[in-house]
Design a protein that fits this description.
3 helices
C-alpha cells in the first residue's frame, strides 16, 4: 500500500481506485494459473511414481535421495499414501 506525506507530516493512505488489470498483468496471472495447474499435475504424478516404487520395493532412503531430501522427509511427505 502506498503512503504519502500530508499536511503536518502525517501519513495517509493513497486512495487509488483498483483498475482492471493491464495486458501484461493479465498475462502474468494467466501464466501463474497455468503453472500452478502444471505443478499440481506433476505432484500427483510424482506421488503415483513413489507409490509404485514402494510397491516394487524401493527404499525411502533411495526415494529421498532421488528428490534431494532425507528418508524421513520422504516418508513424511508420501508415507501415508505410499506405504
Amino acid at each position: 500500500m502506498r503512503y504519502c506525506s500530508g499536511m503536518g507530516g502525517r501519513k495517509r493512505r493513497d486512495r487509488r481506485i483498483r483498475q482492471e488489470p493491464t495486458w501484461p498483468e493479465f498475462q502474468h496471472v494467466e501464466r501463474i494459473k497455468r503453472q500452478a495447474l502444471e505443478l499440481k499435475r506433476a505432484e500427483a504424478e510424482l506421488a503415483d511414481t513413489v507409490r509404485f516404487a514402494r510397491l516394487q520395493g524401493l527404499t525411502w532412503t533411495a526415494i529421498g535421495e532421488a528428490v534431494g531430501t532425507s528418508r524421513q522427509a520422504a516418508t513424511k511427505r508420501w508415507g501415508g499414501e505410499a506405504s
